[in-house]
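Narrative of accomplishments. A recurring question from our advisory board has been how the design workflow behaves on a single, concrete structure rather than in aggregate. To address it, we present the structure tokens for one chain from the evaluation set, followed by the sequence designed for it. No filtering or post-editing was applied between the two.
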């Protein structure tokens, strides 16, 4: 960076002040969209311009992607010498340090780093050795407890001391100790160890700490609000000699408490460093005035925060829209209709729209509506609702009850929950089925007669008894009752409840959403049946998914949206009990939980650049039961002057139009189901419009979005559509409906 370059850079006064303040502790409170990365990169450049050796600069962030982007931007500004700046994540920084000095802690410098699967393998051995009943103390729960302890720099001995007379806590401490002993014997560290061991190294070896304090005389930390106790201690130790520590963050965007993030690190920065300079970046370059005013007035209800208020030169823009609907179906219908309207009017592309929600389970209705409307979408930070493990498991049970010949379904759930049926037993069952020309499930029914299977048949018997029992109940039970029976008999949800982790709770929410889907099917199908329900799911679940291009609507949880921005944002499910969540409202200390939820709301609001739409439903189906919800307190915290409010009631014209469109889709949908019952075909978005003619004929080469290129083998004209048989180069022979397949001649 040449002399006077800084004067040529467009920085606002606060940004420039942050760049120029190089000595001593500095806290930059960077509001959403305020250009914090720009400040950090120019600050690094200015340090070098002032004669600081690039070797003495350390820039830490949280993700490899963020570190890569920062590195690239520093390179562009600084040029020669920038490669000597150490730009990396917390974990990468610690690995480099430990590779040099971990022998001081009794490890070899060639230590292994264990990933999640490695950790699970070690934990299995630990539980076996300590005779831990993993039905009572789940392996995932134990690993989660150990991770939390390491985030707080709590050793096994300290955990044991804190356990007191609590038997479960004592057992957890014993597991922690044995787990660490096994890692040590294997000369291995897990990801949490990387930071904890580096802190331990610095505390036990003053000469090593002094070496790195001399090396890193200027330290910058991004996303400081997301640091945990161990990361805070690491940074404090490194900066304690020269005190040139610059941390950048926004306490209003601290939303990872469940991962161990400690908001006190940023709130108490001036207590730890009394001479710290505090600079607020409040000018937002992303959003309109009404969106920012909405965000400001929501977040100011939090007590635990630094006072600041975002502003912009972008103008007021459109008011924030709030729409309340009768139920979640109408909510999803409106949002998708609104997106389609923007695109049809050429006001925006699909990629300009994002649908945000509190829980992954909420994606299901939006996914189905998008599919029915033939609108491409992409799910961020999750997988398609019907592709999630717990959903596929339970659907596999229903498929097995409905059709035992579905070998994939049977094999998927034969050990769900664990029944100890080994690979050898399954191989012999498969061989027997092939030899006698029967289905895999029928072979399981004859397990006692299969040569060489031995005691394996006794393990198979409970599974077949369960399936046969559920089959016998099928005629007397509705589909939702049958699914509830599967969940009860298998103990699927009970296992997840015992696990008691953030992931297991999210999976239970997904199962609740599946129950809601089944209950809705029971209530609205003309002739509900298990086969009919599985057909209906197939029309959505096995769709020829989305076009592989960038022009798609984005669906994601509010947590996944942090750091992103979109012209049009829809925040769905703005209801008490959903957002903020029921668990937060009913927590032992609800204030901190509610404040975290409010910060999450603030993050969602500030993702919007041009228009923000907030939606809620008066009633929503949760676990198959209708719940009546109040509007979220976060909506009530927004002043009326910033809001455009419409309660969408059945009497309104817009509602009537939605009902007409929905009925048309339902008719097309039911026709597709009837066709599916009579003739198997590949599924796609449910809009049946028979073309006057096809652009291709038998023998032509065609391209399909999912299956690639192939040759048309046969075309059969039906009353409603053409059925096309294609031999694809990689996917084999497929039968497709022409209006669904959208084949292109090549």
């Amino acid at each position: 960076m040449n002399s006077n370059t800084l004067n040529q850079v467009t920085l606002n006064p606060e940004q420039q002040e942050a760049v120029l303040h190089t000595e001593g502790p500095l806290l930059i409170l960077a509001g959403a969209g305020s250009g914090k990365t720009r400040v950090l990169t120019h600050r690094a450049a200015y340090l070098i311009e002032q004669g600081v050796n690039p070797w003495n600069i350390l820039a830490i962030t949280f993700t490899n992607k963020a570190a890569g982007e920062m590195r690239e931007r520093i390179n562009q500004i600084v040029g020669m010498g920038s490669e000597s700046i150490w730009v990396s994540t917390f974990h990468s920084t610690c690995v480099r340090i430990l590779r040099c000095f971990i022998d001081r802690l009794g490890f070899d410098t060639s230590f292994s780093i264990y990933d999640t699967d490695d950790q699970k393998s070690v934990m299995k051995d630990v539980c076996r050795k300590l005779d831990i009943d993993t039905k009572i103390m789940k392996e995932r729960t134990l690993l989660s407890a150990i991770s939390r302890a390491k985030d707080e720099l709590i050793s096994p001995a300290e955990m044991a001391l804190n356990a007191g007379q609590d038997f479960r806590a004592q057992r957890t401490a014993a597991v922690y100790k044995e787990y660490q002993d096994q890692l040590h014997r294997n000369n291995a560290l897990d990801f949490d160890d990387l930071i904890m061991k580096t802190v331990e190294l610095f505390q036990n070896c003053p000469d090593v700490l002094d070496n790195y304090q001399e090396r890193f005389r200027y330290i910058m930390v991004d996303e400081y609000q997301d640091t945990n106790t161990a990361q805070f201690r690491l940074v404090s130790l490194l900066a304690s000699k020269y005190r040139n520590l610059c941390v950048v963050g926004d306490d209003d965007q601290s939303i990872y408490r469940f991962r161990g993030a400690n908001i006190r690190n940023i709130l108490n920065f001036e207590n730890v460093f009394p001479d710290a300079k505090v600079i607020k970046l409040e000018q937002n370059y992303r959003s309109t005035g009404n969106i920012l005013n909405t965000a400001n007035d929501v977040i100011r209800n939090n007590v635990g925060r630094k006072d600041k208020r975002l502003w912009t030169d972008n103008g007021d823009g459109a008011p924030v829209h709030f729409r309340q609907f009768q139920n979640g179906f109408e909510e999803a219908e409106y949002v998708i209709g609104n997106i389609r309207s923007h695109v049809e009017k050429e006001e925006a592309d699909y990629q300009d729209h994002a649908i945000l929600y509190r829980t992954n389970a909420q994606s299901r209705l939006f996914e189905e509506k998008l599919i029915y409307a033939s609108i491409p979408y992409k799910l961020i930070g999750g997988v398609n609702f019907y592709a999630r493990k717990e959903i596929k498991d339970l659907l596999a049970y229903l498929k097995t009850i409905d059709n035992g010949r579905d070998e994939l379904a049977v094999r998927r759930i034969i050990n769900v929950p664990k029944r100890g049926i080994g690979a050898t037993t399954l191989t012999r069952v498969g061989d027997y089925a092939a030899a006698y020309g029967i289905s895999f499930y029928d072979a399981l029914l004859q397990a006692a007669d299969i040569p060489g299977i031995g005691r394996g048949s006794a393990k198979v018997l409970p599974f077949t008894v369960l399936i046969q029992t559920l089959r016998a109940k099928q005629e007397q039970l509705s589909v939702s009752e049958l699914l509830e029976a599967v969940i009860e008999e298998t103990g699927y949800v009970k296992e997840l409840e015992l696990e008691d982790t953030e992931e297991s709770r999210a999976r239970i929410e997904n199962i609740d959403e599946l129950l809601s889907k089944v209950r809705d099917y029971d209530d609205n199908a003309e002739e509900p049946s298990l086969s009919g329900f599985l057909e209906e799911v197939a029309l959505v679940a096995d769709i020829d998914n989305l076009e592989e291009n960038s022009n798609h609507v984005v669906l994601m949880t509010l947590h996944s949206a942090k750091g992103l921005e979109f012209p049009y944002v829809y925040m769905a499910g703005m209801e008490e009990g959903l957002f903020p969540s029921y668990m937060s409202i009913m927590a032992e200390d609800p204030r901190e939980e509610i404040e975290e939820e409010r910060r999450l709301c603030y993050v969602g609001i500030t993702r919007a650049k041009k228009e923000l739409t907030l939606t809620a439903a008066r009633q929503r189906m949760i676990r198959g039961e209708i719940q009546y919800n109040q509007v979220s307190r976060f909506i009530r915290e927004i002043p009326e002057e910033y809001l455009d409010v419409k309660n969408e009631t059945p009497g309104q014209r817009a509602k009537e139009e939605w009902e007409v469109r929905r009925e048309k889709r339902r008719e097309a949908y039911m026709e597709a189901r009837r066709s599916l019952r009579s003739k198997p075909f590949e599924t796609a978005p449910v809009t049946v419009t028979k073309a006057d003619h096809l652009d291709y004929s038998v023998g032509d080469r065609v391209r399909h979005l999912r299956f690639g290129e192939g040759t048309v083998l046969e075309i059969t004209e039906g009353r409603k559509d053409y059925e096309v048989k294609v031999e694809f180069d990689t996917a084999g022979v497929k039968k497709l409906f022409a209006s669904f397949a959208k084949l292109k001649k090549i």
